[in-house]
């Protein structure tokens, strides 16, 4: 982390939207959705008011992680095209303000989740914030090309937290949902790194594309996608699956494998524009992939009480 304490102020005072952008609202959407699915897929019902409050506090915790990440990564955000317009490098919000917001929201979200749900859910939320802000952002991201592999666990914890909100305990089903996100994360971000490689070069971030090159990254995407497909389809035969989920999983993973294969067969002599389109298409598909899998889990959980979901 370079010295960012003297980031120049922007021409205008920070607006509410600038502070909201610090919370990474797009990432927050995925956190909220997967945590909600984890809670609703659990075999224990949750009172709607308690459930709404608990998911709200999980969302606030996710936002706190985003603010802490933006505070720490402001120096590399400033040199990456994809992130240069974020509030801190754009001079709209001072680093100290982002740090204060992240710390305050972290404490608030953990404390309130303990009151609305249970201590174990709050402890898992605290660990998730710590994992993303410290283990991933401050350590792994700049230290190893396996940054996104290990760091992906941070984004995989929300459905586990949702399950604990409902049950107060861990379970195999919760960890299956964790594993689905954990295995999805590397091919998702490596595809992004393929068509945004110059950003990571400029920022000196040891993403796999930078340290091992594009051919190796393509092979890794193919390997992880194959393992992900086995896990995703196999989960259809467990307690969180059923005919509906399995149908979704078979179609989605067939498409994902085709996309990974097309990336894998690229080579450096092919037109750069052609490779860019293939990689971007796979990345876009990966965004729908996770939402649709968890949407199918949610459908199964919704229908199960009526004897229509599950096996």
Automatic annotation (TrEMBL):
EC code: 2.5.1.141
Localization annotation: Cell membrane
InterPro entries assigned to the protein according to its UniProt record, in alphabetical order: Protohaem_IX_farnesylTrfase, UbiA_prenyltransferase, UbiA_prenylTrfase_CS, UbiA_sf
Pathway assigned in UniProt: Porphyrin-containing compound metabolism; heme O biosynthesis; heme O from protoheme: step 1/1
Transmembrane spans: 27-46, 52-72, 93-113, 119-136, 148-168, 174-195, 221-237, 243-264, 285-303
Molecular-function GO terms, alphabetical: protoheme IX farnesyltransferase activity
Catalytically driven reaction(s): heme b + (2E,6E)-farnesyl diphosphate + H2O = Fe(II)-heme o + diphosphate
PROSITE patterns: UBIA
Topological relation to the membrane, as annotated: Multi-pass membrane protein
One Pfam family here: UbiA
Keywords, alphabetical: Cell membrane, Heme biosynthesis, Membrane, Transferase, Transmembrane, Transmembrane helix
Keyword Transmembrane helix set for record: yes
Subunit relationships: Interacts with CtaA.
Any further remark recorded for this protein: Carbon 2 of the heme B porphyrin ring is defined according to the Fischer nomenclature.
PANTHER family the record matches: 4-HYDROXYBENZOATE SOLANESYLTRANSFERASE, PROTOHEME IX FARNESYLTRANSFERASE, MITOCHONDRIAL
Similarity comment: Belongs to the UbiA prenyltransferase family. Protoheme IX farnesyltransferase subfamily.
Main function: Converts heme B (protoheme IX) to heme O by substitution of the vinyl group on carbon 2 of heme B porphyrin ring with a hydroxyethyl farnesyl side group.
The name this protein goes by in its record: Protoheme IX farnesyltransferase
Species this chain originates from: Sulfitobacter sediminis
Name of the coding gene: cyoE
């Amino acid at each position: 982390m370079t010295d960012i304490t003297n980031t120049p102020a922007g021409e205008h005072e920070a607006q509410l939207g600038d502070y909201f952008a610090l919370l990474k609202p797009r990432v927050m959407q995925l956190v909220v959705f997967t945590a909600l699915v984890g809670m609703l897929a659990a075999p224990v019902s949750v009172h709607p008011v308690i459930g709404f409050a608990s998911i709200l506090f999980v969302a606030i915790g996710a936002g706190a992680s985003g603010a802490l990440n933006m505070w720490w990564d402001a120096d590399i955000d400033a040199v990456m095209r994809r992130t240069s317009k974020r509030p801190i490098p754009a001079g709209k919000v001072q680093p100290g303000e982002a740090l204060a917001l992240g710390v305050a929201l972290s404490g608030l979200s953990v404390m309130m989740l303990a009151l609305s749900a249970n201590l174990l859910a709050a402890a898992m939320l605290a660990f998730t914030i710590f994992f993303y802000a410290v283990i991933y952002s401050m350590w792994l991201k700049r230290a190893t090309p396996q940054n996104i592999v290990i760091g992906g666990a941070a984004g995989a914890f929300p459905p586990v937290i949702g399950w604990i909100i409902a049950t107060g305990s861990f379970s195999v089903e919760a960890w299956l949902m964790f594993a689905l996100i954990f295995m999805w994360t590397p091919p998702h971000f490596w595809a992004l790194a393929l068509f945004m490689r110059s950003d990571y070069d400029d920022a000196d971030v040891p993403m796999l594309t930078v340290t091992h090159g594009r051919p190796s990254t393509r092979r890794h995407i193919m390997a992880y996608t194959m393992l992900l497909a086995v896990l995703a389809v196999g989960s259809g035969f467990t307690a969180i699956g059923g005919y509906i989920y399995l149908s979704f999983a078979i179609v989605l993973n067939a498409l994902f494998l085709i996309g990974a294969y097309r990336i894998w067969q690229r080579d450096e002599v092919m037109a750069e524009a052609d490779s860019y389109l293939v990689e971007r298409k796979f990345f876009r598909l990966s965004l729908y992939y996770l939402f649709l899998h968890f949407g199918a889990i949610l459908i199964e959980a919704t229908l199960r009480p009526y004897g229509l979901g599950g096996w």
